[in-house]
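Technical note accompanying the year-one report. For the benefit of new consortium partners, we illustrate the data format agreed upon in the data management plan: each record pairs a sequence with a structure-token string. No post-processing was applied to the example shown here.
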Amino acid sequence: MNGKSVEASLQATRRTLMIMWFGFLAEPLIYALLPWIVSAEQVGGTERGAGAYWKWGAYFLAVALTFASLVLHRFLLSDRQIKARLAIEQVEADGAPLGSLSSSEAQLVSLSRYYLTSMLLSWGPNSCVPVGGLILLFMNGDSRTVLVLSALAVVLNLLAYPQLDAFIERVRNLSYDAGEI
């Protein structure tokens, strides 16, 4: 067994997760600063401004993306998906382990990469939540909507804080029940 290789790989995945999470967390904060960065004269908007349909559309888009983010996160990291992934990884690890790693270690490294991918897929919709507010900001200078939707995106990102160690423990418990890792 090469526990140092596995721990080094897991540490690299943890570091990548944190860097990506901070990036996704910073994005809506930057959006929230846009009303102050861009002066009201520059944004101005049209005489007519954006109607109520645009505003409700922005909120509907935000709710749809919030729902998509939460469902993706919950689905991809569900026990059922993890067990299915364990079965897939068991077949792949039996055929060709990663380098000098045992099949269980290769499985663990591969599952940590699956976790990284799952987190990225659940964070993606979060970064799109404030986009409707940005559209309204540039259409008619409405800064409140971008602030509200940016705050929602920050909350979603805080709820999806990366917890690789807890995921690995969950995988070990699930695989222990199945008699694997």
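Partners are asked to follow this layout when depositing records. The chain is about 80% helix and 0% strand.
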